[in-house]
Amino acid sequence: MARGLTLSAVLTAFIALVLVHETCSATAKVNHNCAPSSCGNIHNISFPFRLKNDPEKCGDSRYELSCENNHTVLSLFERRYYVKEINYNNYTIRIADSGIQKGNYSSTPSYSLNRHNFSQYPSAYTTYLPKWTRNTELSRSVVWMSCEKPVNSPFYLGASTCNIDSGDQYSSNSSISHFKRYRYVKVGRTNANDVVDWCKIEQMFITSWPGNEGPINISCADVPNELVYGFELSWLRGTCKSYCGRWSDDDCYLDHGNHVGCFNIGGFLFIILYIVRVTLAAIVATIDH
């Protein structure tokens, strides 16, 4: 009898735990009297974003943008990025290095950036979209490498062949610039064992360009498109409290219908207490019999 009660308690608790991960309204708990702002081709700038000259009550200061020469600019790690798009349906913002010029294939990013930047320092953004089952990565790497000798690999694109200025600007102050180097571009996930022994990584960038997901099929023409398109970041984790309440911290996610799901910590504590109470009742019943 006690075993049956305990099993029933656990099953009930499991069902309740699933229900605790309730989907809440995707409407943030903020002042909606603020009129949307705009700059250049970015319209409807609203929560959590704000422009520098917006009233203080509008938006979140961590997501402040500036309008410079008709460009919407995001300052990230003390670097400037042009805002290409803000998608309020999936809680992402797409930005591109301000040094990239559309139509100029020889232009290269001014800054090195990779996913590690966002995990090493506290950031209001993530390079992934938080999901209930698993996080969805929003970008992939673009790696500039300098090699002592040629590399024969379908994953490596020769920078000179692609007419890409991979840049002496990156290595002019380093010792490797005094020797003849062969420069390559690699797109996609790059682990340490993917870099051949005679090559060194000079710079890393990230891109979300949807034109080609397979790194082995990347062509020279694709590389400038990767850089011009820029990369996506998610602000959802940084604004969980605005959607789900003060106890949520970063415990929220996006469900299959693009609704914000909230983890109810109060409900979780209730379940723990319920399990304890029912289990104790089962033990007492066993002793009585």
Model description:
The strands form five sheets. The chain has a six-stranded mixed β-sheet with strand order 3-4-5-6-7-14, with helices on one face. Helix 1 packs antiparallel against helix 6. It is flat and about 80 Å long. The chain starts with a helix and ends with a helix. The chain has 289 residues and is of the alpha+beta class. The chain has two domains: 45 residues; 225 residues, no CATH class.
List the helices and strands and how they pair.
Elements lengths: L1 H19 L16 E3 L2 E4 L4 E2 L12 E5 L2 E6 L2 E9 L4 E6 L18 H5 L7 E2 L6 E2 L2 E8 L9 E2 L9 H4 L10 E6 L11 E9 L14 H8 L1 E4 L5 H5 L7 E3 L5 E3 L2 H24 L1
Parallel strand pairs: 3-4
Antiparallel strand pairs: 1-2, 4-5, 5-6, 6-7, 7-14, 8-9, 10-12, 10-13, 11-12, 15-16
Helix pairs in contact: 1-6
Membrane topology: Single-pass membrane protein
Subcellular location: Membrane
InterPro entries: WAK_GUB (IPR025287)
Q: Tell me about the biggest sheet?
A: 6 strands, mixed
End-to-end separation in angstroms reads 10 Å
Class from helix and strand fractions: alpha+beta
Query: Which of globular, elongated, flat, extended, rod-shaped describes the shape?
Result: flat
Order of helices and strands: HEEEEEEEHEEEEHEEHEHEEH
Number of domains: 2
Quaternary organisation: single chain
Approximately how much helix is present in the residues? 10-25%
Number of helices: 6
Tally of extended strands? 16
Strand order of the largest sheet: 3-4-5-6-7-14
Beta fraction? 25-35%
The low-confidence parts are 15-21, 167-178
Q: How confident is the prediction overall: mean pLDDT?
A: 76
* Gyration radius from CA atoms, angstroms: 25 Å
